[in-house]
């Protein structure tokens, strides 16, 4: 849940190292993990993975914006590759987080 929420927020926030997304989601994730007796490391890792997986917009990451003009990409071009890539990252990251940190 926090991975998908992190990806969604990171799409629209231009920042360095996704500090804004993590600082918004981490306190909520920690309190929810504590109340549900879930390992906090696993929940925080899900937040970090989601915040660093912004592939669907050119404003999601600096490198996306850098290749937009020279490559002749349009804003909608990022969705065609970014959405499947975000789904793959989520499908792989969530079981790995549960296996390693839970």
Give the SSE order as H and E letters. HHHHH
Radius of gyration: 14 Å
- Mean pLDDT equals 84
Structural class: mainly alpha
Distance between the termini: 15 Å
Total count of helical runs of at least 4 residues: 5
Strand content: under 5%
Characterize the biggest β-sheet.
none
Determine the oligomeric state from the structure. Answer: single chain
Overall geometry: elongated
Considering DSSP H and I runs of 4 or more, what fraction of the residues is helical? over 70%
Runs in which pLDDT lies below 50 for 5 or more consecutive residues are none
Strands, count? 0
Characterization of the model:
- This protein has 102 residues and is an all-alpha fold.
- 74% of the residues lie in helices and 0% in strands.
- The chain has helices at 2-11, 19-36, 40-51, 62-71, 77-101.
- Helix 1 packs antiparallel against helix 2 (19-36), helix 1 (2-11) runs parallel beside helix 3 and helix 2 (19-36) runs antiparallel to helix 3.
- The longest helix has 25 residues, at 77-101.
- It is elongated, with a radius of gyration of 14 Å.
- The relative contact order is 0.18.
